[in-house]
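Saturday, quiet lab. Running sequence design on the structure tokens for the scaffold JK sent over.
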């Protein structure tokens, strides 16, 4: 491996591999580093919205990156009294096994011409006339670095762009994936793979989920706002108990030995660029504060970061002024959407959770609007007014028992 590159991308998750692919395709001499050997596991529920495939259709050309599709979903209210059932002829979401999906994206980057080196933990980056990337056993030089090293990004810390999420800006998840086989999944979730979302289960600012894939069953809880006064493991145990008592899942599944992970919530970094540095994906805080979706934003920001870096390499200009084009690009693309989803998240998890499911269960148009904006098939900007007007009217009718 050479010791000098135009651009080094740190982290080979969806953000980093996407950035590396677009850089290599545009003739940039790029090295992708990860602290883990691949394929590597990644705690995740593994839903990807149709807009991921619309934006990056090449993932369909590469073997088995998509594991299965789901066509149906049940959304349960906190009391359990209301259930919104959704069924579509077209897939609502695709499902992936992250170990396989991330490895596939990495291979696409390598096929496009990126160099890859792992295990290679980046301990520090030093920014001067170029960038020095400090690994355990060697230093590498580059003109610039893209930090795609996840929620605990060392690039964000070393570059001074990370000033702390704070407790109220960190989501917590617990998740476990079981290999149960397609026969059992067909029996419990039909061939259409109906998933379940339990809004604000046990009062959390988030939800519990049951996500059947082709052969695997993924179950977890996410608390998107971590001013927690409770133990999330207790919530997960209670969740399994409830699911078993209603025969949603087989009796022999246990939540013990699940995996815990944090995710940035409700806050993107104020600045995602510095001299010779760009941050994307979780490292920049790009997670949907309503659904917890992050893969789409990771890949979109990886692509935007690559395009800005290509222009910097061509101009030989890596100043923060030049690289600020990246922030404009992602803000225009999805910055406004993240803010709107934050307001929706605060409204629903902050108190309207029961009403939200009741309205979705009774008003088909509202239900479809929510599915469309959550899956990205309609832009939240275009539906915002309709959702506010219709939602308010539904709530008003509900007050008088007319919903
Ligand atoms: C439990 C859970 C469930 C989720 N479910 C979904 C879902 O269903 N759908 C969805 O869209 N999103 C989901 N998300 C969010 C999604 O997983 C992330 O938003 C997404 O993985 C972000 O991609 P990334 O490339 O930015 O970071 P990551 O996928 O975290 O990749 C970062 C990479 O950087 C490497 N790295 C870290 N530090 C260093 C270092 N110092 N040196 C070198 N390499 C380093 C890591 O090994 C890793 O490979 C979920 C998250 C959690 C925690």
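Result came back. Writing it out in full:
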């Amino acid at each position: 491996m050479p010791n000098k590159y135009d651009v080094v991308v740190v982290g080979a998750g969806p953000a980093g591999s996407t950035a590396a692919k677009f850089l290599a395709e545009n003739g940039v001499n790029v090295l992708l580093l990860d602290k883990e050997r691949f394929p590597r596991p990644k705690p995740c529920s593994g839903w990807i919205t149709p807009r991921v495939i619309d934006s990056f259709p090449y993932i369909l050309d590469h073997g088995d990156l998509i594991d299965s599709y789901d066509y149906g979903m049940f959304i349960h209210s906190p009391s359990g009294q209301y259930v919104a059932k959704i069924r579509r002829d077209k897939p609502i979401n695709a499902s992936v096994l992250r170990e396989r999906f991330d490895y596939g994206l990495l291979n696409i980057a390598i096929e496009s011409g990126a160099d890859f080196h792992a295990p290679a933990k980046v301990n520090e980056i030093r920014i001067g006339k170029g960038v020095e990337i400090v690994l355990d056993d060697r230093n590498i030089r580059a003109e610039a670095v893209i930090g795609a090293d996840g929620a605990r990004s060392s690039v964000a810390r070393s570059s001074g762009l990370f000033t702390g999420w704070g407790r109220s800006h960190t989501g917590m998840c617990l998740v476990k994936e079981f290999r149960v086989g397609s026969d059992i999944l067909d029996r419990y979730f039909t061939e259409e793979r109906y998933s379940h979302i339990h809004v604000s289960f046990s009062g959390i600012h988030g939800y519990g989920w049951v996500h059947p894939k082709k052969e695997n069953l993924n179950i977890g809880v996410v608390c998107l706002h971590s001013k927690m006064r409770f133990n999330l493991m207790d919530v997960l145990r209670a969740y399994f108990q409830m699911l078993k008592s209603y025969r949603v899942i087989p009796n022999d599944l246990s939540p013990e030995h699940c995996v815990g992970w944090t995710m940035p919530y409700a806050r993107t970094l104020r600045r995602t660029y510095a001299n010779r540095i760009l941050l994307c994906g979780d490292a920049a805080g790009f997670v949907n504060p309503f659904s917890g979706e992050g893969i789409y934003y990771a890949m979109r920001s990886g692509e935007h970061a690559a395009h800005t870096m290509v222009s910097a390499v061509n101009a030989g200009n890596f100043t923060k002024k030049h690289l600020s084009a990246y922030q404009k690009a992602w803000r225009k693309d999805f910055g406004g959407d993240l803010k709107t989803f934050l307001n929706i998240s605060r409204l629903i998890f902050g108190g309207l959770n029961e009403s939200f499911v009741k309205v979705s269960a009774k008003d088909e148009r509202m239900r479809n609007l929510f599915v469309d904006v959550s899956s990205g098939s309609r832009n939240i900007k275009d539906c915002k007014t309709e959702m506010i007007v219709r939602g308010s009217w539904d709530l008003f009718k509900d007050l008088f028992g007319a919903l």
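Notes for JK: DSSP finds ten helices and 18 strands in the chain. The longest strand covers residues 170-179. Ask whether to fix the surface positions before the next round.
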